[in-house]
Request: fold
Amino acid sequence: MGGFYRSHLAFRLPLMRLRPLLALALAFCLTFIAAPTSVSAAFVLGGERGNAQFAETVNTGQAGQCTSLPDGSSGSISADGSIKDLCLQPTEVFVKIATKKRQKADFVPAKIISPRFNTSIGEVYGDLSGGKFTEKGGLDFALFTVLGPTGEEYPLVFSAKNLVADASGKSIAPGTEFTGTTFVPSYRTGDFLDPKSRAKDTGVDYAQGLVALGGDDEELARENIKQDLTGNGVMTLSIDSVDSNTNEFSGTFVAVQPSDNDLGSKDPVDIKITGKLYGRKA
Reply:
């Protein structure tokens, strides 16, 4: 009897050691058996995650595209109330530089080198009173970089923050234009610590290899002592199409704003951004 017990126990011990591995293999197999037929279905199936708009957009690469209305939508809606779902999608950018010596700076075409569909502003909302739009919040800024014709890169904050824009009329109709100013925050915060160990709010004023210079050189002082500088931009929203039944409108926009100043070490240049817009009156 004792010999049988010992042989039975000797058989079970290796099996017990393999049990976690067998459980892991079984779970791995069940994952593939129960997987949906497409990656998209894994996100859109289920009551808690089902969403028609999400289902139409997921994995299409179109998440950053603004809605547009059919050409010829020539309705009119009141310029009082509030606006929601304002979307601004950049399509072209220009940098104001001189491409040749002794040439006056002017806007020249540039290229967006960040992922294009990460450059849009969306879900912006605000008050609308007497043809005056006051932005209150939303996904109202986007960070991206453009490449100028000289090969220099210009980071910027494309911003609709604190937009206060007056319309050319008391209703929103094709031909209406909203023009106003925006707040452009710093591309980096005052706590940003760059590879040379410089920062504005952390008490580090100098890169360690330049301490002996004492900051007497103005150019080095700008490079080492960081400043959390902000700016202002000008934006114009031009309405081309209006659907009075759904209170939707679409059109184009033009924004001119400063590029990044590297926390005070560089002089910013003006960036002109043009593109599509869409919005809906609440």
